[in-house]
Amino acid sequence: MDGKGWERVRMARLGGSSASRGREAAQLRQVSSQTVRLGRVQPQAPSHRTIYCNDREANLLARFKVCGHIIYGVSIPRICWHLSYFFCKILIYLVALLLFQVNSVSTTKYNILTFLPKGLFEQFRRVANLYFLMISILSTTPISPVSPVTNVVPLSLVLLVSLIKEAFEDWKRFQNDIAINSTPVDVLQGENWETVSWRKLQVGDIIRTANLDGETNLKIRKALERTWDYVFPEKASEFKGEIQCEQPNNSLYTFTGNLIVENQTLPLSPNQILLRGCSLRNTVHIVGAVIFTGHETKVMMNSMSVPSKRSTLERKLDKLILTLFGGLFFMCLIGAIGSGVFINRKYYYLGLFEDVEQQFNPSNRFVVSILTMFTLITLYSTIIPISLYVSIEMIKFIQCAQFINKDLRMYHAETNTPALARTSNLNEELGQVEYIFSDKTGTLTRNLMEFFKCSIGGVSYGVGITEIERGQAQREGRALNEIQKSDTVVYEKGFNFDDDRIMRGAWRNERDPEIFKEFFRCLALCHTVLPEGDESPEKIVYQAASPDEAALVTAAKHFGFFFYRRTPTTVQLRESHVEKMGNIQDVSYEILNVLEFNSTRKRQSVVCRYPNGRLVLYCKGADNVIYERLAGTNQDIKRLTREHLEQFGSSGLRTLCLAYRDLTIDTYENWNEKFVQAKSSLRDREKKLDEVAEMIEKDLILIGSTAIEDKLQEGVPDCIDTLSRAGIKIWVLTGDKMETAINIAYACNLINNDMKQLIITSETDAIREAEEKGDPVEISRVIRDSVSHDLKRCLEEAQQDLHIFGQKLALVIDGKCLMYALDPSFRVDLLKLSLNCSSVVCCRVSPLQKAQVTSLVKKGARRITLSIGDGANDVSMIQAAHVGVGISGLEGMQAVMASDFAIAQFRFLKDLLLVHGRWSYIRLCKVITYFFYKNLTFTLTQFWFTFHTGFSGQRFYDDWFQSLYNVIFTALPVIILGLFDKDVSASLAKKYPQLYKEGIRNTYFKWAVVGVWAFFAFYQSLIFYYFTTTASENGHNSSGKIFGLWDVSTMAFTCVVITVNLRLLMACNSITRWHHLSISGSILAWFVFIFIYSGVMTPNDRQENVYFTIYVLMSTFYFYLTLLLVPIVALFGDFLYLGLQRWFFPYNYQIVQEIHRDEVDSISRTEFLEIGNHLTPDEARSYAIAQLPREKSKHTGFAFDSPGYESFFASQAGVYVPQKAWDVARRASVRSSKRTSQR
């Protein structure tokens, strides 16, 4: 069992026999008595571990032995030579205690000792921070023209903000750890349960725990029959045994182990394992043994962060930073050359005598140039925006926490699920997505399955018409002959079937009633569903691992085979209308073996024994898998069922084939012996089980097929149509049949009649003929040749239709062909063909193929991709794309845990991409280019001054001016720009989705845009420097003195601060009170600072020349005239350019602004949330939830990734919020406090 994420086995007391423990101890003593040369032994990692339950001493001895092997195998012989054997044993014992005994877990990134060094290491991994560290070190040398404070202060402030952010996030994780580690649990001590905290649990402890809230999709977990009696502490204390199991790993869905009891080996599988985060049903509590503890648990081993993704804009920002480095080097090179040329003793007033320092010694001009180069590097260091990264981080974090997570337009009231940004690194990436890869089931559809039609014995049943059929008829312009449903039709969740021929026992009158019995019993027996509630057809509730299974069992109930009870070894049915109409009998079927479904097998089987002793194997699965395993008889049923499967697929239904096989006792016993051996194997258990399953899943007799309808989610067609108009190409990657996938694509507007379909399929005569022969080599050759031919044909057609006729194309390809098309020899053709298509549908694909297709476009075409899915089979696809979006639906939380963003419905993509993604992209583009502009402007004024100082490196500005320019005087307005700028409203962004294409084309962060900002930075710097210096030549203060260096530089700096802040207003599309406050506050902050700074002088002050400067300047009329004229002249060029650009070369959003310039955005987010009396009850509850505090964690993993403890905080605030799966830790801590208070 997982101790903290613990695998709990309800096998109760697992313990080691005294004989086994004695042998283990004897072996240990024998090993200890041998002479061992430390460092010489190369230990082999054991493939499994042995656990003695309810015996801590025996477990410690076992760990002691393993640690001894580890310590002895460490390759540090010279140290070990000097250690006595006694101290080695003490060391081993301590290592055993530390590594194997502690169940306390920590998800924090830092601790008290590592916070500062590790935090600083993380910060200096950024090139800009490392650059400023080197500049700060350089500024402490004699060659630096500025005080170290010039560079140390801004660097320190940036590091301080970043470290505070890191500390805050880690403190939240630490509090979460405390709550989890303090949760009480009952541990068996002697013959009594003793309550202890989780941190004190050890491997082998027997525990009793109650319900653990977690996942919504349930799976059967059952104890071994041998351990059923060991529930009460008195009985459990008598049990002795040992567990041999796999080493700790991060595979959540596999487990290999054996329970050894009294020399009897019993296999353990995932069916006997419970991971923390599960929901217990049909039992009050469980008793189990702890298998893994602490950081060895499966949950903790999955809690590491997924590989971090960097946005495309951030990578382009790196190129811009490198360009700035190039510009810096060029400026320093000019200054260095100029210094070497200018330096000369003829300028006697400079005092360049023989004893002058090397930096100014005309005798060695080369050394002068080199030293001047380093001097100017420190002087021009402000060209690199040190506060850029921390500003972007703050903007992204607030965008996620306040805008995306709290957007009512992406709140799903039915499930009480808001949108969730799990990372803030990719906000702007949402505004540049060109390709979307989507799963179908649960993503485009509701994943609410309804039994709709079926085929039994070659006859099709069911008279309903699907949404897909209606849409198909509408496209083709034909009328549908809908059959009126009978008055007695039964409708239930999961069952939407009507056909009087087989309902209410009428199937007994069909041609072959026996095959109907097999069909219905297969539905009622071959599953892993759990019944809940009263054992009556009206009140029972089925808990299933997937909605498909629940729908099939519900269908069996309505056909007269009511599944009402399950025990670990039996399934009980209440069968009616079997022998006579109205007869009801309870029948118990013994379930001997379950061959479970997985993505490789694509089928599920059970071996059951009838009360009369009949042995039957029932199997259900994908049609292609079942057909491969059928006996050679009943060709007519095979042919008719295949036709029905194609019809069901054309109607958009999900199909499964049902088959059975009668087994003799000898056949079964021989097979079961091999099955038990495979199940008990500790190596390659899954592979061996699949091989054994193949031995019995053959010579099947086809019964029929089922057809289940999964309706589209609300708003999917409109969403896909809107995203298509936005220039986004959508690919559907599904495991369904081709006909089903095509019709779903039609229903959701992915494909329409105006598109030409290019189909590459393995369902051709040549491939079928090769498959019938059964030669794998020949089959591979035929499919490969077919794929090669089809790719070339489709590529030629695509180029002709697209470039000549301008027709839109849709590509449809199945999994078999895709497997060969992804081969390196065909991959380029597949990519070319796919990129020419507006829509692509890949059907019958595996999870691996989904990831491969995503990577093909991501790496091959270098386009920005987004993957969206809802299930565990979509995780690889989600992680392969630039942006991963998880649907928090009925398939559990695996997709959400692996995603970057989580939403409840596919239709919310429209708001996520067209609104938040687009806004984030535009805002961050402006933030980056504005940072570039303001730093370049400031640095160039210093650069022009260098020409007037003989390239000596004399500073133009005071050190403190230079230090605080980025972190105080211009910092806040740019953050406000990144948060609140909005070119068009959310409604207009969705009304004109074509606006999104500007992000796909990267319109706002091209080199041309950067060049325009650079040009005006160049122009304004000339104005700032030459206007003030030239005009001040004739200026003087009230005492008659002319202005000096510090007077001119202070005046120029004042103009810079005012102008760059006003320029930001010109870049804004929407101006709020926050813009006014930040800009006026920044300018005011400068004047407050300079008043204080000029009025105080300390004895050690390097800048004594600035003393009283501002007071002198403000006493002159020249100062006020300069403050009025310089910003006007500097911004006139920008004003003229922006006006001409908007008039003659407008962006698309500017055209929309003009169209709607007189309209008020009535549904803007701010106004919408403030008008509380206009909210519906659902919206009001959502607003209340949005105001609750949230906790963030960068860690993934079920129990430890806590997007927000809404339920806990809502209860404190008096707001009703249903319990969420991720609230485990918080509820555990609340339960803990309640139990403690009760005691």
From TrEMBL:
Residues 896-1146 form the P-type ATPase C-terminal domain. Its cofactor is Mg(2+). It holds the Pfam family PhoLip_ATPase_N. One of its GO terms (biological process) is Golgi vesicle budding. It is found in: Endomembrane system; Membrane. ATP binds at residues 439-441, 549, 597, 620, 654, 734-736, 844, 850, 873-874. The keyword Cell membrane does not apply. The chain crosses the membrane at residues 83-106, 152-168, 320-343, 366-390, 927-945, 965-984, 1004-1028, 1048-1065, 1077-1097, 1117-1140. Mg(2+) binds at residues 439, 441, 870, 874. Keywords: ATP-binding, Magnesium, Membrane, Metal-binding, Nucleotide-binding, Translocase, Transmembrane, Transmembrane helix, Transport. InterPro entries: ATPase_P-typ_cyto_dom_N, ATPase_P-typ_P_site, ATPase_P-typ_TM_dom_sf, ATPase_P-typ_transduc_dom_A_sf, HAD-like_sf, HAD_sf, P-type_ATPase_IV, P-type_ATPase_N. GO terms for cellular component: endoplasmic reticulum; Golgi membrane; plasma membrane; trans-Golgi network. It is a multi-pass membrane protein. It is an enzyme of class 7 (translocase). Its EC number is 7.6.2.1. Residues 100-151 form the P-type ATPase N-terminal domain. It comes from the Eukaryota. The keyword tRNA processing does not apply. GO terms for molecular function: ATP binding; ATP hydrolysis activity; flippase activity; magnesium ion binding. The active site is at 439 (4-aspartylphosphate intermediate). It catalyses: ATP + H2O + phospholipidSide 1 = ADP + phosphate + phospholipidSide 2. Belongs to the cation transport ATPase (P-type) (TC 3.A.3) family. Type IV subfamily. This is Phospholipid-transporting ATPase. It comes from Zingiber officinale (Ginger).
